Amino acid sequence: METAVDHDAETIVTVIGVPTGACPVCGSPRVETRYGPSRFAECPACGLGRVLGYDGGRADYWASKETSDPYWADAKRRYFLSALAMLPRGRLLDLGGGTGEFAAIALEAGWDAYSFDTSPEATAAARARLGRRALEVPAGGFDVVTLWCVIAHLPEPGQLLESARTALRGGGTLWLTTPNFAFQRRYARLLALVHRPLLFGTSDDHVWHFTTHSLRRLLEAHGFHDVRFHHRGVIEWCSTGHSSSRLLISGKRAWNSVVYAGYRLGMPLATSELQVTARLPG
Ligand SMILES: [Zn+2]
């Protein structure tokens, strides 16, 4: 039996009375939900969503991360620098660093920056950019570890946080970004209404969708504390890139400008991605 959760969009968002096991973050029973054509196992208690029917690991993922659009290339650079400005300066590891794009900007900005990725193709590209700073095996003792949109892609997000914890020194700082499900599911509902459905999973390679509550809970379960959320504009490729609609692209740019201006004025607005710092005990 299907129950509409939103009368304005009852054909688009449905909760289906099928239990999908316990939430791995909070242990509550999950239910199946649907946003447009995409299906989720969703936790009503902490808000965590797991895409159903997709397990990650799209082969051409790295190609989709590069952007040739000057607006988004500039927005991304500005955002990388604004994140660095708020982190404690020291030895930095960009974990899941892909082709080394962020580590290269951190190096330029004077950081002792390194990158590590499990993908051999990405590591080869990072070597060309960073030389020996593109690590082939993960190291430890870092002051800062960054996870730019990594946790959403992996089947076991807890294992990733353990890797981050192992790479950090005691008292070290984690920076993490991931899509904000509280935002994305509303956005998906809106796009489905105008017949431009978001294809979670197959199009963005995201398996997990976190909310502030579920992410804080997972971080604390893995030994992090002082968890803080930041809102500094967006660089998420799924929210920024490849849209065939000029109207959507303009809308995304306008939204990003408003969010970034809000951040600069000290009025942070919730964004389509969660941006988090957390620390290990000293
Ligand atoms: Zn939960």
Characteristic key phrases:
282 residues, Rossmann fold, 13 strands, 26% strand, 6-stranded antiparallel sheet, disordered N terminus, binds zinc ion, alpha/beta, 9 helices
Question: How would you explain this protein's 3D organization?
Answer:
- By secondary structure, this protein is α/β, with parallel strands linked by helices.
- The chain has one domain (2-279): 3-Layer(aba) Sandwich (Rossmann fold).
- Helices cover 34% and strands 26% of the residues.
- The protein has nine helices and 13 strands.
- It has a seven-stranded mixed beta sheet with strand order 8-7-6-9-10-13-12, sandwiched between helices. A six-stranded antiparallel beta sheet has the order 1-2-3-4-5-11.
- A hairpin with an 8-residue loop joins strand 1 and strand 2 (13-22).
- The radius of gyration is 19 Å and the shape is globular.
- The chain binds zinc ion (ZN).
- Zinc ion is lined by residues 23, 25-26, 28, 43, 45-46, 48, 214.
